[in-house]
Design goal:
The complex is a heterodimer of chains A (290) and B (143). Chain A is an alpha/beta fold and 290 residues long. Chain A has ten helices and 13 strands. In chain A, the strands form three sheets. A six-stranded mixed beta sheet of chain A has the order 5-6-7-3-8-9, sandwiched between helices. Chain A has a four-stranded antiparallel beta sheet with strand order 11-12-10-13. A three-stranded antiparallel beta sheet of chain A has the order 2-1-4, with helices on one face. The longest helix of chain B is centred in the last third of the chain and has 20 residues. Chain B has two domains: 91 residues, Orthogonal Bundle (Arc Repressor Mutant, subunit A); 40 residues. Classes of the chains: A alpha/beta (290), B mainly alpha (143). At the A-B interface, helix 6, helix 7, helix 8 and strand 13 of A face helix 2, helix 3, helix 4 and helix 5 of B.
């Protein structure tokens, strides 16, 4: 598969704040990728660079075969970006916003837009500022999806929605994500949403890539290894090591059988425990922090 | 497709998805949860041979999960012979006897039994009591 975008050693600092600090990441076309990291890990900055709204200071970016900073408008139109911010014209109704947005797209599909609006139940005549939070996100999402982007960047699409609205929101976007052949990169702090929607997860921390894995593989290979007793060596490749009494808990991805056997041969008790995405994510990030 | 067929398909879909439930946050991959439940439904006779199962798209929609995840579960179930694709007709239960599961699934099961043993021990149950209980529940679940 050819990559939808590819970042190599990309850096973007804001003053002394290292938002993105040597990030290398490549995402294949057609995948739905969950983009995970703490606040300030560099997710938004990365998305804005991919969308061509910010310029990287160092490194190379290739998005749909072009440098996003200099790409021709025809290619730029194939990227959809739902920012975490509010829609910039709060007095616009959906109808007005759609009419405005359509001017930037020569091949605007009015039928598809109407289908989206009815599926997402966006009221056509009400000003953005007078909609509920859930309706505002759907308003924004419908506009982002309308041009049928090949690459869809969703920055925390369900942010600020309460639990019932969020569920409804996720339910309404799922078929849309699967309908097209879009490549999707979406960030979220709600890991159970990521688990429903994504086939791949990317974890970033402090502006760098920590892990990229198909979600199924992550669940099949991420383990907490609990070792009690004689300990001739530390388990290699651990994301986090915690000690309590004579017990050591290693969070690892795909531990090598030889390493485990070596500990057992030395007389240690070795237990493997599967880890869910949320626990694994916390361990990876906490391990990086300390 | 006439309306009768459509109605029948709907019934199958609803009946089928009623007992399929996925837990996205579980450490068990979602495709594996689907596989396990379909295998169980077939083994226990709830899904008889020649039953048509919902399309990948319908099931993904019902369970509100990524289409690829359902597709992966179906591919695996077809590969192992539990389901089969019939060109232009859909996916059906084959009715062939289930083959024992692979090593990965066995390991996962072992981990669950290990956890269960610990719980039982912590609650003060003896191994005989656990055996008895397991036998009773096994009979209930598989009859």
């Amino acid at each position: 598969m050819n990559p939808a975008f590819c970042l190599e050693n990309v850096r973007k600092w804001f003053g002394s704040s290292r938002a993105v600090d040597g990030l290398s990441l490549s995402v294949e076309a057609g995948h739905v990728t969950g983009f995970l990291g703490l606040n300030g890990a560099g997710k938004t900055t990365t998305m804005r660079m991919i969308a061509g709204l910010l310029r990287a200071e160092e490194g190379t970016l290739e998005v749909l075969g072009h440098d996003p900073w200099t790409m021709p408008p025809a290619v730029r139109r194939r990227i959809g970006y739902l920012s975490e911010r509010d829609f910039p014209f709060p007095e616009f109704s959906f109808k007005a916003a759609a009419a405005f947005t359509s001017r930037f797209y020569p091949e605007w599909d009015e039928t598809y837009l109407n289908k989206l609006a009815s599926l997402l139940q966006v009221p056509p005549g009400t000003a953005y500022s007078r909609l509920s939070r859930g309706q505002q996100r759907k308003f924004h999402l419908a506009l982002t999806l309308a041009p049928k982007p090949d690459l869809l960047l969703l920055d925390d699409p369900a942010q600020g929605l309460d639990v019932t609205v969020r569920r409804e929101f996720i339910q309404s976007i799922l078929p849309l994500l699967q309908e097209g052949k879009s490549t999707v990169l979406f960030s979220s702090h709600i890991l159970s949403d990521v688990e429903r929607i994504a086939d791949t997860v990317v974890i970033v921390h402090a502006g760098r890539l920590v892990l990229k894995s198909p979600l199924d593989e992550l669940k099949e290979k991420a383990r907490q290894v609990i070792v009690r007793g004689p300990h001739p060596y530390e388990l290699p490749g651990a994301y986090r090591v915690r000690r309590s009494g004579d017990e050591v808990c290693y969070t690892v991805f795909d531990p090598a059988p030889g390493d485990l056997q070596g500990l057992r041969d030395a007389g240690a008790t070795v237990d493997l425990r599967p880890v869910g995405l949320e626990d694994f994510f916390v361990d990876v990030v906490e391990g990086r922090r300390s | 497709m006439n309306s009768l067929d459509f109605g029948r398909l709907r019934v199958i879909v609803y009946w089928y998805t009623m007992f399929l439930k996925v837990e996205p946050s579980s450490p068990v991959p979602i495709y594996r949860q689907i596989m396990d439940q379909v295998r169980f439904a077939v083994a226990s006779g709830r899904l008889g041979p020649e039953t048509r199962v919902p399309s990948v798209r319908d099931l993904a929609q019902e369970l509100q999960i990524n289409l690829q995840t359902v597709a992966k579960a179906y591919v695996e179930l077809v590969r192992e012979g539990t389901l089969e694709n019939r060109r232009g007709l859909g996916t059906y239960v084959t009715g062939r006897p289930l083959r024992p599961v692979g090593l990965g699934a066995r390991e996962a099961l072992e981990a669950e039994i290990r956890a269960l043993s610990r719980h039982a021990f912590a609650y003060g149950l003896t191994v005989d009591e656990v055996h008895k209980l397991l036998g009773k529940l096994w009979r209930e679940e598989t009859k």
